[in-house]
Design a protein that fits this description.
Elements (H helix, E strand, L loop, with lengths): L4 E6 L1 H5 L3 H11 L2 E8 L3 H7 L9 H8 L4 E7 L4 H9 L12 H5 L8 E3 L3 H11 L5
Antiparallel strand pairs: 1-3, 1-4, 2-3
The protein binds inosine-5'-diphosphate and magnesium ion.
């Protein structure tokens, strides 16, 4: 398994607010690179598969509605070992109120749901999520 690739999504709020360029720019300036990208509206079944770990959480229905409401920018990001960790530290905490200044969420978001960006939370999750969104990527 390669830790050098991870899945990143600029969520619908990022596209709607015109922050996709800013987010990609921060990722690139950190020293990471895009390996694949697709701009599309995520459908219900893909959203449910992607967020399966949260299916019993009270906010699951809202989360699926949010992630499917308009287009997202879905990307494979490449870098040195533990790229998923580098992305997670660049993103900041899930709740933007707790996210450190200098992180994407800490600088640009306020909502716990509308927090702009998804990044895989382990090497195993990265592999699983890349397979969901880019099944033909080798
Ligand atoms: P992560 O995106 O930082 O990995 P997760 O716990 O995996 O955070 O949650 C997935 C997504 O679900 C979050 O990014 C956010 O959009 C949404 N979410 C998480 N917790 C809540 C909540 O308490 N209320 C509403 N939405 C939430
Ligand atoms: Mg997560």
């Amino acid at each position: 398994m390669s830790n050098g690739r991870t899945l990143v999504i600029c969520k619908p709020d990022a596209v709607e607010r015109g922050l996709v360029g800013e987010i990609i720019s921060r990722i690139e300036r950190r020293g990471l690179r895009l390996a694949a990208a697709e701009f599309k509206k995520i459908d219900q079944s893909l959203a449910q598969k992607h967020y399966a770990e949260h299916k019993d959480r009270p906010f699951f229905g809202e989360l699926v509605d949010f992630i499917t409401r308009s287009a997202s920018m879905i990307m494979i990001v490449e870098g040195p070992l533990d790229t998923w960790k580098i992305i997670r530290s660049t993103m900041g905490s899930t709740n933007p109120v707790e996210a450190a200044p200098g992180t994407i969420r800490g600088d640009l978001a306020l909502g716990i749901e509308e927090n702009l960006i998804h990044g895989s939370d382990s090497a195993e999750a990265a592999e699983r999520e890349i397979e969901i969104f880019f099944p033909n990527f080798k």
